[in-house]
Design a protein that fits this description.
The complex is a heterodimer of chains A (263) and B (92). Chain A has a single domain, classed as 3-Layer(aba) Sandwich (Protocatechuate 4,5-dioxygenase, Chain B). Chain A has eight helices and eleven strands. The chains are: A alpha/beta (263), B mainly alpha (92). Chains A and B meet through strand 2, helix 1 and helix 7 of A and helix 1, helix 6 and strand 1 of B.
């Protein structure tokens, strides 16, 4: 069953803060993560399925899956001094890949690939104690051509149906966003007004609008990672978002959001 | 950059350059070799002279013009700085 849904920023500067990053802002985002951690404990989740955009870590140009499911026994990675390892909820991961393919989604799967910081940063701050096994769900956001937001939304709808039919208490978490332009001329000028309009729509329960956004618009608005949110919203339909925080830094719109799920 | 997407299809001609940036970002051993002897590390991956010059010069515009992926340029640089100046970061 589906018991909870969240979206979390994964800006690496939240984990390793350079002097150029406003410390108070970073701590406010951490406070929002702490609320997610409390909620995950209260929801008594058996598994956490994390939808993230791989930052060319698990998959390089040798093989670029649009949508992938990690079905190993555990998953590990590194980021600087951080060394992390999480057990995988294998029955849930297998159900997602098998039933996803059965429903017509040509999913890629892997049993061994490094876990990107896009997965790790939210887990570092929100993993409850005792830790919950995870299922990493990859969406290609950085290597064009990426899946369309509509395709992500449709995959999310199937994912939601699969999860709801499972015996485990499952939380879905989308990692990524909002506006940022790493490595480009636009790095210091994200589209914060676009983010705010989008959050208004999500608070109003209009999640389906994400499915109609084009890939071109996401690129223009620094929001290529919102494909992970589109996937999550496909699973949620028109639930109303509870925005824990929206903290625009000089280069990144950091959002932490919950969508309460009806029991 | 107007009209052009921020993140373009990575041209196949830039495969080796992107492979090198990927290794700087994600391969601790390669990054250590690069910090010790950048030219030797780049020749391991078969970079040509123009790619090597752009990378050594930290010339982002030249790297992008040669087909480097902007995110890889960004994160390779951040990871090198995290190694060179770890004291300037606060780790949570």
């Amino acid at each position: 069953m589906l018991v909870g849904a969240f979206a979390c920023a994964h800006t690496p500067q939240l984990l390793a803060r350079p002097g150029t990053e406003d410390r108070d802002l970073v701590l406010r985002v951490h406070a929002a993560f702490a609320r997610v951690k409390q909620r995950l404990a209260a929801l008594r989740a058996d598994a956490l399925a994390v939808i993230a955009g791989d930052h060319v870590e698990a998959f390089f140009l040798d093989a670029v899956p649009a949508l992938a499911v990690y079905v190993g026994t555990e998953c590990a990675g590194t980021f600087g001094r951080y060394r992390y390892r999480f057990p995988i909820h294998e029955p849930l991961a297998r159900a997602i890949i098998e039933q996803g393919v059965e429903r017509g989604f040509d999913l890629f799967y892997t049993q061994q690939a490094p876990l990107d910081y896009a997965f790790y940063v939210p887990l570092h701050f929100t993993m409850p104690e005792p830790a919950v096994p995870i299922v990493p769900l990859h969406v290609n956001v950085y290597l064009p051509p990426q899946p369309t937001p509509r395709r992500c939304y449709e995959w999310g709808r199937a994912l939601g149906e699969i999860v709801r039919a499972r015996p485990e208490r499952v939380v879905l978490m989308a990692s990524g966003g909002m506006s940022h332009f790493p490595g480009t001329d636009r790095y210091a000028s994200p589209e914060f007004e676009y983010d705010r309009r989008l959050l208004d729509a999500l608070q109003g329960g209009r999640g389906r609008e994400l499915a109609a956004i084009t890939g071109e618009e996401l690129d223009k608005m620094g929001n290529i990672e919102l494909r992970t949110w589109a996937t999550l919203l496909g699973a949620l339909g028109d639930a109303k978002a509870d925005v824990y925080c929206y903290e625009p830094s000089w280069h990144h719109g950091n959002a932490v959001v919950e969508w309460p799920v009806a029991p | 950059m107007s009209g052009e997407p921020h993140y373009r299809f990575p041209p196949a001609s830039a495969y080796r350059l992107n492979r090198c940036l990927f290794a700087l970002k994600s391969d601790d051993g390669f990054r250590a070799r690069f910090l010790k002897d950048a030219r030797a590390a780049m020749s391991e991956l078969g970079l040509d002279a123009e790619d090597a010059a752009a990378l050594l010069g930290g010339d982002r515009d030249a790297l992008l013009a040669r087909g480097a992926h902007p995110y890889l340029v960004f994160m390779a640089d951040l990871r090198l700085r995290m190694e060179r100046e770890p004291v300037s970061f606060e780790f949570f």
